[in-house]
Amino acid sequence: MLVWGVLILIALVWAAWLFGQVFTGKNRIVIYLSMLLITCFGSLAIYYFEGAHQELENTAALHQRLNGLDLKELANKADQKEITIQELLAELRLRTESDPDNFDKWKELGNIFLRFGEIAQAEQAFNRAVAAKPSAETRIEFARSFMEQGSPEAFENAERYLNLVLMNEPSHEGALLMQGINYFKQQDYQAAIDYWQELLQYREKGTDSYQLINEQIAQARRLLKLAELNHIRIVVDNVDSLLLTRYKKAFILVRNKNGGPPLAVKSVDVSTLSQPQKLTPSHVMLPGVDLWEAKDVYVEVRLSQSGLAQPELGDRFGKTSLQKSLTPSETFHIEITEVVE
């Protein structure tokens, strides 16, 4: 409706300009009022016939139909395709906005969003819940929910919630423990070790909790050592001669000599190419492919102007010679000299 209000004002200004020198006194007032009425009725007609009125009626009817169901029942209906995800989200927003300070409703809403992979929506709901019940324990609880969802975006949100706790309470043991778990799940074992070692300072030696954390640190160190071998290293030898500011992303790929989709892909920031890059089996894209069993492949580094994985005209790239196979911890030196044509 705001748009139509602006249109009305524009119409009045236009009328003032067009008729200002033609109509005077009562005639001018009559013209203004007539145009105002015409614009208002026209706006209402457009509003009605374009479907906004019908959309409101449909939303009201849907709310009446679902009003007797709790949030879990609503989610089950969406799971069973009895209502669409869009209908579910509309009903959930309507319910929570009608009771904006209800912590339990926002919490449950956030968990339902996570269930359907709506990470950004879940974060908004959890933020409202935190506003209703601000505490370190609340943020840690929601960080755990994000970690259980397991997507990269969810891990980032978990990290952010835990960092907020540690910013205010650097020695908060629950946050230190959970941040270590968060990084461990992302296979950032060194970061996990750092947080758990910090936590050990606040635990009494010889206790069960001290021993348990020590065991977690030992496991992370074993996996870190394994990860140090379970990769190939890629060094771009001519990085200093490249105008990297022209490119948004760099992609490291393993391709089969016969073509087809890449076996493995890793996206990196172009500014990091001055450092050796690692590619691991976790970057394999095709199901059932073992990076170390792949035959007749080559490693490629491509600079993308658009940031898209698909090669485009003007992208620059370089690649190794054909390799019979890849060996863990092997280092490849590549010069980026070719252009996609």
UniProtKB/TrEMBL annotation:
InterPro entries: C-type_cytochrome_biogenesis (IPR051263), Ig_CycH (IPR056412), TPR-like_helical_dom_sf (IPR011990), TPR_CcmH_CycH (IPR056413), TPR_rpt (IPR019734). Residues 248-330 form the Cytochrome c-type biogenesis protein H Ig-like domain. Keywords: Cytochrome c-type biogenesis, Membrane, Repeat, TPR repeat, Transmembrane, Transmembrane helix. TPR repeats lie at residues 103-136, 173-206. The chain crosses the membrane at residues 30-49. Signal peptide: none annotated. Residues 54-203 form the Cytochrome c-type biogenesis protein H TPR domain. Gene3D superfamilies: Tetratricopeptide repeat domain. SMART domains: TPR (SM00028). Pfam families: Ig_CycH, TPR_CcmH_CycH. The keyword Membrane applies. This is Tetratricopeptide repeat protein. It comes from Kangiella taiwanensis.
